[in-house]
């Protein structure tokens, strides 16, 4: 049994330690929010946060995540929509939406680190692939979510 | 009619996976009522109303990001005259469509058809429901319906001031006959349609709810990963699955004529075990095909005097011979994969009684249903397709339902158990139905005053229609292969277009705006002609476009919005193109810069589109952005062929545009009314040519062969 904390809840997994986290989440924990896009850490559709860091869950094994805290899109809206999700809805970011859960998790991680990201910060952090062309709206929504963060939180280094 | 949902119960029970139970929230045909508990009423095929006035609009077309799901709901709701905040949508059931005589019409979703080919009957559906609801209220009040008015789902009897809500009369309305005559609203009076309303599908997508084909979870479901012969058309010769069968979680290795699949209790286990299956393929006769053999085939086609005639006007040869100046050029494009972010996927469940249930990301629910039924050998009424949201489509999931056939074949060998087949990215990259490669030779003759008097084009291009819609062939001409070349809006008196149908072994399919590469060929060549004539590219084109024509209007609108005629900023080149298609008229102006190492950056794309009417301006803007990025990708992407197979396997060797590559896209909507055009594809039509013409304006280099490589633009 491998123990992880997923979305604040302790979970025991009876799987091979070399199984990528993505498949443990999707097929063994019933959390399909992180998507399979490439299986090779190229597209970012599988992005989740592990101890607050964005990772490509298709290329990180369950063994590597043992005992660590995993946050998936399913655990993000607690309580209520995360400001990134709100900005995503306000700016109508998704088209097909398949890459968007990964995009959102990457954006959440970016804003944790840089509450007021520049365009260049966004260029560097948002390496997720989108085939529909939502990139301009992703950028706009990240700026909007950043602007929605109270200045006090920014100076205190809180999300 | 009260809505019942036999499949819903199974689905709600779905999935007590290894770490704990959870309830699946999936948008399903006819799911609305089961979710709410109270009985909903189907007023007609399009409109379902709950007692609390919530309205569910049935959508027959698929949603792959293009926004049809919302736009069609807007059209229905506009005529229904209900409260938009209470509107949701669900996909119409392909099985019910079969049983009820196709009340929703076509489910095919391609060619930017969603709105443009169903606007009339979906609006009639909404209007008919409204009339029936008003009639039901009038009957209850025992007053003439003419004394009643309706607004946002509330029916008012004017003389007495009494009110009834839709939810209160829906059950009675459903029993009434549909009205004989329907008057549709004038678009100028629209209150729901025509507005940039929030899309209905976005909240679920932002929450990460399971809405895609890959997200389907069913009780006891197994997972399959597939391997097809890397050489197109090859078959399975022998299989050694001993080692694979020993792997953890593996249930079965399925061998069919043209594929091998491993079925396991998780997809990763299935896919890992697939690596351990030793398959010997019979590659057929195509194992030596390559880009070189394909190009040789194209050249042979162009040299074939028996090639088909796709256009003839005047006498092009004579006019060319008499021309003051003749320009010739050769253009080429490679095969392209759609590369939908969600790979091909289908869950199939062959029930013990033979009923076949399928969940899939498909652009055509009816085609998926017939494929499932045919594969399982049951009548279509004994099959159901649950349409999920698509993780991208772009034409890949429409004409060919190969993934449905495979999933059903696999599930037939595991009767009674649902099996979700998902392709690996590698499989998806190497087994597409590719945008056809093509080679075109163009020739233009200018008279002494620089007017284009003769145009000749010959194109060698595999035919999509010959395979998927042979009835749409016009003799030996596939119009999707010659469009834009043989239907120029320009007034050129002498034209000849030849088509060489050169079908190699690489499977081809509709790829966003089929024939869009001809926009590059024609509009870049027009730029060459303008240059040869010493004329401004805009003036050169306008001189050949009739005053008052829609092509001219969009070109002028794009040029004006982009500031054509003013000097671009230093280091920026500007180019334009005009190409109509998919029911709409489109023109674009691109601004580009090129770095010293040859890296191209598209800074800005202004695109003017006349689609007649506009149902959701924000969705149209999103589609313009989407077309720009898809067009941008098509400048750099390529599927190359070697040893009979596509060489690319994943996003490392088939890189698609990234966030920093996104140009600033400005959509100029110029709806002129009187017709209905699409938005899913027109925006891409002028894109690549406008960019390449801008590259020429900036660098003096004419790009005639795609993909564009950095070396092509590197400064010497």
Can you walk through the features of this model?
The complex is a heterodimer of chains A (159) and B (716). A five-stranded mixed beta sheet of chain A has the order 2-1-5-3-4, sandwiched between helices. Chain A is built from seven helices and five strands, in the order E-E-H-E-E-H-E-H-H-H-H-H. The model of chain A is unreliable at 154-159 (pLDDT under 50). In chain A, a hairpin with a 2-residue loop joins strand 1 (2-6) and strand 2. Chain A is globular and about 45 Å long. Chain A folds into two domains: 2-75, Roll (Ubiquitin-like (UB roll)), CATH 3.10.20.30; 83-156, DNA polymerase, domain 1 (Orthogonal Bundle). Chain A is α+β, with helices and mostly antiparallel strands. Chain B has 716 residues and is of the alpha+beta class. Chain B has three domains: 6-206, 2-Layer Sandwich (Aldehyde Oxidoreductase, domain 4); 213-284 and 344-422, 2-Layer Sandwich (Aldehyde Oxidoreductase, domain 4), CATH 3.30.365; 291-336 and 433-713, 2-Layer Sandwich (Aldehyde Oxidoreductase, domain 4). Helix content of chain B is 30%, strand content 23%. In chain B, strand 4 and strand 5 form a beta hairpin. In chain B, helix 6 (119-141) crosses helix 7, helix 13 runs parallel beside helix 14 (402-412) and helix 18 packs parallel to helix 22. Chain B starts with 5 loop residues before the first helix and ends with a helix. Classes of the chains: A alpha+beta (159), B alpha+beta (716).
